[in-house]
Amino acid sequence: MSKSPMTVRGAERLRAELKRLKQEDRPRVIKAIAEARAHGDLKENAEYHAAREQQSFIEGRIAEIEGKLSHAHVIDVTQVDAKGRVVFGATVELLDLATDEEVRYQLVGEDEADIKAGLISVGSPFARALIGKREGDEVTVQTPSGKKEYELLAVEYI
């Protein structure tokens, strides 16, 4: 399996979630299972079955995060010397030429993408249209609702 790009901030978020799952959630569920077992008949014990289901979810999420981190190529955007070009991890400020609305996005790895937080996947058509562009360039992006044109106002590596 090839390495997936990930920002330092994205890797830190995953590590924090992994730590919480292992140090807080897992022990809490193990304790809940032990308490439910103490109540007797496990076949009809709803608390026991709910705790086992939650344990299964936690263990699955731990494995998923560990897999993502083991296959991550963590890139420190602040150390990138892209000479003003849009690259992975760059934060861009764009002007929608049709509406004069300004938008701001950071190009991140697929696992970090969250459009509501302004984080777009580097593999998305929108991000691919931006890669390699410089401040002042005009960018045409094919969207589901048709072509949109933007002017690239700023490129930052933060």
Topology:
Layout: E1 4-7, H1 8-38, H2 46-70, E2 72-75, E3 91-96, E4 102-108, E5 119-121, H3 125-130, E6 138-143, E7 146-156
Parallel strand pairs: 1-2, 4-5
Antiparallel strand pairs: 3-4, 3-7, 6-7
Helix pairs in contact: 1-2
Describe this structure in words.
By secondary structure, the protein is of the alpha/beta class. The chain has two domains: 4-75, Transcription elongation factor, GreA/GreB, N-terminal domain (Helix Hairpins, Orthogonal Bundle), CATH 1.10.287; 77-156, Transcription elongation factor, GreA/GreB, C-terminal domain (Chitinase A, domain 3). 39% of the residues lie in helices and 26% in strands. It is built from three helices and seven strands; from the N terminus they run E-H-H-E-E-E-E-H-E-E. A five-stranded mixed sheet has the order 5-4-3-7-6. The protein has a two-stranded parallel ribbon with strand order 1-2. Helix 1 (8-38) packs antiparallel against helix 2. The longest helix is centred in the N-terminal third of the chain and has 31 residues, at 8-38. The protein is elongated. The relative contact order is 0.16. The mean pLDDT is 91.
